[in-house]
Amino acid sequence: MFNKIFINKTNLLHNVHYLQNLLEEKKLCVMVKANAYGHGMKEIVQCLEGEDISYGVSNEEEAFALRELSDKQIIVFGAIENYQKVMSENIDFALFSLEEAKKVCKIAKKFDLKPKMHLCLNSGMNRYGIKDKNEFLKIISILQKYNFALEGFYTHFSSLTTDENYTERQKRLFYEFCFMLSKEWKVTTHVGGGRSIFLDIDAQMFRSGIEVYGYGDQNLLPVMSVKSQIVDITQAEEGEHIGYLCGYTASKNMRVGVVPLGYADGLPRKLSNKLIVKCKGRPLENVGNICMDCFMVDLGKNKVKVGDEVEILLSATDLAPLIESTEYEVLTNFSRFRGERIILEN
Questions:
Q1: Which of 78, 92, 95, 158 could form a disulfide with 58 if both were Cys (CB 3.0 to 4.6 A apart)?
Q2: Are 336 and 305 spatial neighbours (Cβ–Cβ below 8 Å)?
Q3: Which residues form the domain of 278?
């Protein structure tokens, strides 16, 4: 295949061990949702199977695919449709409301299954979870009625890097609810959201996504790189347009190289006429709008030929400002990458 994503296993393990050292005896839950932030769930899990970690995903489809790859604890943090299958596959899941608790307990009793529930506290994210202490107590009562226990209790911080006061408010609320938990259940308390793993938050497990993949701290190393090839070279005459919608007009006669990776593979169209790639160590500028399946570059006077390797992504930090977004979006765009993913062992 022309297009390749390379997963640096050494960097990945370095990041995981660095985070675990920060946590000391606390647990680490590695988020592998969105195809492991674009890196490839299969490849990331293959690299991490020897590590003492849990996995987090967004939905049951991701969880079922992950269960075929790993026997480790899997937690679904999004909504569930098929509770019976989730419980049958020994998959943990989030609990968002009293009505949901009632539904889960009835299904579990009917099919003689054990639900591994993690109750979500909406401490200020205003996305999922409970807010009201009365609802919390009613959920506890329902679980006790059916002789079930909570596996975990968690919240998600929304503004760790932007609003210190709001974060403190979220922390206080989280601690208040933690104090109300039954000591008999031995519930794992956990948090996530941005830089929570680097802050002084009292919890037993921390969910980490972007940090595992190399971003958010100067001691972390990017795990993924994206490379392709020059597959065609053409001549554009002065005044001719390059690509769709007259996205670029040649100001002189140009040699134009074609790279077979486009926005369908995860390369944002917003990078059009901004993206700079490297070939033989030299920068090549993208010309014209990025297409669904390819993009074009100005070869200039560089001695480039068909088959030469092109480095497209070495660090998501380089591309994020160009699309006015974050490393999260740059990386997860590659979740739909149409190419080969290769693990580099050293």
A1: 78
A2: no
A3: 224-344
**Token pair belonging to 324:** 């006015």
Output the DSSP codes for 239-302.
T-EESGGG-EE-SS-EEEEEES--GGGT--GGGTTT-EEEETTEEEEE-SPPPSS-EEEE-TT-
pLDDT band for position 183 (cuts 50, 70, 90): confident
Using DSSP's 3-state secondary structure scheme, residue 36 falls into helix
Whole-number pLDDT of residue 320: 97
Distance CA 203, CA 200 (A): 9
Q: Is residue 2 part of a domain?
A: no
Statement to judge: residues 196 and 53 lie in one domain: yes
321: CB partners within 8 A, 6+ apart: none
| Per-residue pLDDT at 185 | 86
Tally of domains within the chain: 2
Over residues 331-346, the pLDDT tens digits come to 999 999 999 999 998 7
- With cut-offs at 50, 70 and 90, classify the pLDDT of residue 200: confident
Same domain, 147 and 93: yes
Give percent above pLDDT 70 in the chain.
100
Q: Give the end of a domain, one of 180, 208, 236.
A: 208
Would you state the structure tokens that stand for residue 248, as one six-digit string? 């670029």
